[in-house]
Amino acid sequence: MSRPRPQSAWLSKTAVNGALVLAVFYMLFPLVWLVTAATKDAGGLLAGNAFSFEGFDLGGNLSRLAEYNDGIYFHWYVNSLLYAGLGAVVCSLISVAAGYAFDKYDFRGKERLFAVVLLGVLVPTTALALPMYLLASEVGIVNTHWAVLIPVLVNPFGVYLSRVFSAGYIPDEALEAARIDGAGELRTFWSIGLRMVMPGFVTVFLFQFTAIWNNFFLPLVMLSDQKLFPLSLGLYAWNSNAHAEPDFYPLVVTGSLLAVVPLVVAFVSLQRHWKAGLTAGSVK
């Protein structure tokens, strides 16, 4: 076989690198715009020079953001951290436990029940918002934190993903050894199964944290009290007012910039668990 000519290989490498550069630029462009636009006042934003640092006023925007309506923005921030943080942790535990059970235990109707779980992946969350509102209204939790927290505790895709991780990361021999040593099923899962499938737990957590943090339609349906709003709904309300009052534009842009920070921190701080998971198979 004839080897490819060096010029052809160079052209292929250049094309691949060029495509990667374009993809990175496409993904970073909105973030760069957000960083520079957050330094502008309303006049600078409406003038269309958001990409320059002329008239830098980030400190003033942050000050106005903290002062507006007695600092309700940071009240929304705390609400979002509560919904996303607590909801993602509990949802990940439920998903990992369910995936572990589907993988390691045999019981009647297991595959049929798992098929029902997979069907839940196909149902869009927006289609469930109205039924969940009616159920929440019957229970009496509409316009409370529970109306947003309880529905996000279940994630069918997280259960599926956890079963895949359980099959790949937890050897049956380790569980049998724990049972021989006298550990109960709950102790075996908590001390061995959960620790071994931690990369899967982190993956489900990050997916769910991002989904809840960006969740908009469910809070829109469930909540009417502004003090219970998450960031997504609060910034939407401000943006709706910006058409009549342009002074809201800097608040929306600066608030959107701060809203990205927890997502970046979560991904950067938890990526080491993925790296550990990628090398786990080499030391079995």
Topology, please?
Layout: H1 6-37, H2 42-47, H3 58-67, H4 72-104, H5 110-122, H6 125-139, H7 145-149, H8 156-169, H9 172-180, H10 185-196, H11 198-213, H12 217-222, H13 231-242, H14 248-278
Protein name: Carbohydrate ABC transporter permease
Domain ABC transmembrane type-1: 77-269
InterPro entries: MetI-like, MetI-like_sf
Number of strands: 0
Give the N-to-C terminal Cα separation: 39 Å
Radius of gyration: 24 Å
Structural class comes to: mainly alpha
What average pLDDT do the residues reach? 86
The share of residues in helices is over 70%
Question: With helices defined by DSSP (H or I, 4 residues minimum), what is the helix count?
Answer: 14
Quaternary structure of the protein:
single chain
Low-confidence stretches: 278-284
SSE string, helices as H and strands as E: HHHHHHHHHHHHHH
Shape: globular
Main beta-sheet strand count, sense and barrel state: none
Beta-strand content bin: under 5%
Characterization of this structure:
With 284 residues, the chain is mostly helical. The protein has 14 helices and no strands. Helix 4 (72-104) packs antiparallel against helix 11 and helix 8 runs antiparallel to helix 11. The longest helix is centred in the N-terminal third of the chain and has 33 residues, at 72-104.
